[in-house]
Model the fold of this input.
Amino acid sequence: MKAMRLEENFGLENIRRVDLPEPEPGPGEALIEIQAVAINPRDRIMMLGGYGRMGGRPPLVPLCDGAGRVAALGPGVEGVAVGDFVCPAYSTTWSHGPPDAEAHRGAHGGPLDGTMRARMTVPARAVLKAPPHLTPAEAASLPCAGVTAWSAVVEQAQVKPGQTVLLQGTGAVSLFALQFAKLAGARTILISSSDEKLERARPLGADHVINYRTDPDWHKTAREITEGVGLDHVVDLGGAETLEKSISAVRSSGSVSLIGVLGGASPALNLGKVVTRNIRLQGVTVGGRDMAARMMAAIAAAGLRPPLHAERFAFEALPQALAALPEGRHFGKVVCDDF
Amino acid sequence: MKAMRLEENFGLENIRRVDLPEPEPGPGEALIEIQAVAINPRDRIMMLGGYGRMGGRPPLVPLCDGAGRVAALGPGVEGVAVGDFVCPAYSTTWSHGPPDAEAHRGAHGGPLDGTMRARMTVPARAVLKAPPHLTPAEAASLPCAGVTAWSAVVEQAQVKPGQTVLLQGTGAVSLFALQFAKLAGARTILISSSDEKLERARPLGADHVINYRTDPDWHKTAREITEGVGLDHVVDLGGAETLEKSISAVRSSGSVSLIGVLGGASPALNLGKVVTRNIRLQGVTVGGRDMAARMMAAIAAAGLRPPLHAERFAFEALPQALAALPEGRHFGKVVCDDF
Amino acid sequence: MKAMRLEENFGLENIRRVDLPEPEPGPGEALIEIQAVAINPRDRIMMLGGYGRMGGRPPLVPLCDGAGRVAALGPGVEGVAVGDFVCPAYSTTWSHGPPDAEAHRGAHGGPLDGTMRARMTVPARAVLKAPPHLTPAEAASLPCAGVTAWSAVVEQAQVKPGQTVLLQGTGAVSLFALQFAKLAGARTILISSSDEKLERARPLGADHVINYRTDPDWHKTAREITEGVGLDHVVDLGGAETLEKSISAVRSSGSVSLIGVLGGASPALNLGKVVTRNIRLQGVTVGGRDMAARMMAAIAAAGLRPPLHAERFAFEALPQALAALPEGRHFGKVVCDDF
Amino acid sequence: MKAMRLEENFGLENIRRVDLPEPEPGPGEALIEIQAVAINPRDRIMMLGGYGRMGGRPPLVPLCDGAGRVAALGPGVEGVAVGDFVCPAYSTTWSHGPPDAEAHRGAHGGPLDGTMRARMTVPARAVLKAPPHLTPAEAASLPCAGVTAWSAVVEQAQVKPGQTVLLQGTGAVSLFALQFAKLAGARTILISSSDEKLERARPLGADHVINYRTDPDWHKTAREITEGVGLDHVVDLGGAETLEKSISAVRSSGSVSLIGVLGGASPALNLGKVVTRNIRLQGVTVGGRDMAARMMAAIAAAGLRPPLHAERFAFEALPQALAALPEGRHFGKVVCDDF
Done:
């Protein structure tokens, strides 16, 4: 069975195509035939050894995101059937609740082997039903970035009709958050440095767009859209580059989701503003199986389609795909569905 | 200044066209030029004396719902300007929070004089900005039925993307609840005894429709739509006629909004089911000024349009409009915008 | 190994002392040496066949409540050690969240064999650490009635400092709810038909007591304690006998926990009051493993001690203990710790 | 009527005893005979001109905290009676909800004249009933620091039985937060640089105490108290000096109240930890009238007594009292009740 695998040492140059023994589902396990995978910044950091003791070690099959069909079941499986269109959950040891140490111990693509192989076995309790209207590539894009955005917008900030929400950039988490905020009835504002990407984001639900390159006072422009009241919520993905302005943009008792550290992981915090205006800052990572299942059900019911990057990478081009990620030229999820 | 007014005694036959002195706005008050009014079941009960000591007494100008333009301001008014398109709030003494005794003491259309007159003065704190994309008749339909539905769906049940919500009938509260549930990202099921009305409700956001006349087991049909899991939420408007089935239709830990008593006000409650399945029953009436303002902002941001009954009644035909209400032949709010 | 067991048919007369093979812990299981058990109304109904298909069938070892020491571990157990002072969770298949069909499938004392035996094996994930300051009999009293009261007061009603809470009767759920409401900072009112029991409940945290036999207008007396505002919360245990008064006793937007059906399971519901005053009715049963663990931790941190009925029943006197339960002469949990 | 007042310019040296005309209550106002006042860091900053345009300007009667008796009522007042034991609310323009610009416009002691005078008029809607078991000095200590702590612990963090909460220092907000956390059923940990103050805090409800001077790894010690799980909540008052350790001390999905900036207002924020562990940071200031009323009711029901600094300052010694505040030698609120 073909797979891509990190061999011997960390580093993208050590990812190689290998042949592995055919996996067989044990008690309580499902065998999934992988049809597509998607790539997250996390996967690149993992391959570079950036997570230290929390990450996996070579040999390691990369990637946590994938989608496919259930090909066989081990004994004692309930709730999953052969032929089901599914995704492996991000982690096999995170059913619900906050991310404790145990939650990451069973994460696919590090510490556990990931989705970058023809077939894999997954405990049935960590198998998610994928929305049936999606292609394998679209479904593969959901478990990591989608659940992160869902947690921020729907379960933590609990965005409601009539609220105004600002999203930063056109990375996968931001675009998912845009779609979920719109689905939840909010008015949305998207900022990006690219007019072209902003235009492409409009049909996904961006009511207002701001180019932060040409309008560095985007936080003031955003406040004006709310007639000076301030935003209900900002999904902050820029870290040190954006936090100060995100805090300035929200209303009194508004909230900011802290997700990204793209612009630096140690911003100075303007305590005076946060205190006097009762602002809430909420750290958000990916979520457990139950939360992922709620997101999958919502996407299925609403018929949402996640945007995918136009260029598709071949199975063996995984190192190139991982290397391309930080360049930021993509719009939509980078996937590989040429299995 | 023309007005319709209940004279001497309760009873629709005692509503008469009268000429009243021109009102002048006192300190903190706005003068509103009324352009349209809408009729609620509450108004009919009020005219019949059904609220006893809690209601108003003749002489009484009827109706709590209206919309128009601010024509003048008394001294010391902030936040409202001449020319603003507005609605009087349901009550002048209910700013926020639950409905205490004080909350209803300032209700328009009983105990206080209502909207059925050419001009009225309202304390500025009880003036709501109406969504600018609406006609006066559409805006007039919002304060009572709209806020009741908003409270049930958005603020009490906190309906979220991916949830399934069932609405009962095509009365104004049910249709507003349908629109808000859809706006909040839910999958919706509408039941009615009329196939024709069900078809008219589809474009308002009804994903599934059930005729409860031809399918009296609508609660089972609704459960099937959720693959047997049960609904997240039911907006119950039938009281004794529907409560048992509403409770059967929701999932474990689901909830039911109790709003209507159309089918009887003293249903038998199946405690066994409510207890063992942790079901929540939430009584809901209209809400205070702050909640109404949140609803108005959401309708404005989303561009929602409330449906209006096709037939419009003339100013002097108010008694006929009130009498027509219980016949249930209307679809959408019954309004009078011929001022 | 000794056990009491329901043999052949339902009925307390069919419970007999038997000798069972020594259990051995399988993979992921702990062997618990039972030191005390406690009796719930549920257990009596189970022995009488009252739960139909949802319950267990003979032969069946009764009772869901017990406490003891971990005597041995099967392979692969983490988080539990030999010698730990523990209780089996109510169910082996209910980890968190609402009570779905699956949740009750693994309930001890029906459908699964229960605690009324010298030793039992339990999956490690369903083993609860008992508060170390308690005796085995006290710890055994917690999993069913304690978690029910905890769910009602702490997790559903979220009782806060300064609120006023009314509890009904001196059954186990009511006394636990009294202790939890007091622990959460509330002012408490306890009603009972016995002055003697009311006096015994004072040291458990009853700030006010009302004998509902001599004061049938207890709901009005309770409102007076709040200067006419109404209670924040009532834990209703009387069902048809109390619900109408419970609803009258709470404030606008107050809430009532529905738990008990002692006075009848099909009360008439006064919809008018529930609707106009925005009252919330919340059905409550026992909870899952995670909730039970939170309760155990709170009891340990606060040093709470649950009251036990003075009379202790011998191991073989289980049928007599079950028969005595409905007589209601006890104060505090009925336990058997003579193992 | 005697008063202390800031004359001409900012600076403690410009506070002087003056004689002012007797105030008379206008429509909707109550006249309060002040019996005691309490001092907050806010008052000192105000007298030094530290709030710029947001603060008051001389001439200005200082202080927001006071307590006394209602001496007379203007026309149209409901809900307040002559002789009532009361406190003026922090602000006359903040009834409920988050602190918008309007909320601070009516704050006593700047921009509006404060409590440091024999008698003052206050709109009846901004008059709080004081807990009857308290002395005037104790009651005077509540509106500003008490409400801040209440907001943090009870309304924002919603501390529950069984949770573990850490408080920083023995300033007024920290000691109130300690009492409220204990009242809400939590296990409490107090840190301070003074063993003597820690011992004095034990009877107020400190279950564990840590001297952060001798144990700079107090965050690790605190985690050990929770057996490595981490705290549910930290009330952070040290700002730049403590935030990093506060974040390290809480559990996954735990929360930190941001209130104080004593150790610096621009700490570096460890985004990595906040994000991966889903930590919530919540800015907290004082609250509106409704929140203050809820706190007053809870203190009355529970019989809590706030600690007061042993040394009492005379009416004319206000500048000395304000100057003494930053020295931090006090334990409990600094009050002046020699009126």
